[in-house]
Amino acid sequence: xxxxxxxxxxxxxxxxxxxxxxxxxxxxxxxxxxxxxxxxxxxxxxxxxxxxxxxxxxxxxxxxxxxxxxxxxxxxxxxxxxxxxxxxxxxxxxxxxxxxxxxxxxxxxxxxxxxxxxxxx
Length: 121
What we know:
Blueprint: H1 6-28, H2 33-53, H3 58-84, H4 90-120
């Protein structure tokens, strides 16, 4: 993990939670379709933050953060669907959804700040 990037660290820790949720869903619930979507979108958040950290321009950075933000929204959708179909209990849902919501707020704030700075240049 990157000791100087809180967003990266949070996204990385969130990805670990998503991988563990995926393992639980396929091993204990025998659910393979929704859980695969959750795995893809939930781990993509951190991957896009990592790419943003290596961006070659402000526009590139903004584009990667935007993708990470959208993947967070998608992840929240899959989590809600898994809860509402009985694959994950409300306590587990609340915990992981709260993490996703926090990430979404952070990413949106970064995106908003980045776009304001880009327009000034």
